[in-house]
Design brief:
The chain has 71 residues and is mostly helical. Helices cover 61% and strands 0% of the residues. The protein folds into two domains: 32 residues, no CATH class; 33 residues, no CATH class.
Length: 71
Amino acid sequence: MRAQALLSEEKNVQRGVEALLKALGPVETVRFLTLPRRRLESVRRHRKWQATLKPEKFFDEVFGTRRRNGR
């Protein structure tokens, strides 16, 4: 296997934008690049999920039986 050098960040962005322009055209490329970032940071998202978690229901769904006596 032949080693491959990584592109500089600038060249990588340039090629990425060129690929988007070729595939989507200028209007859709701009639209794609300006899409709002809706994802929550993963730890924050996990904590938000945990805050709504009902432990007994969760264990029933995962294990199929209720946990008894801490087991």
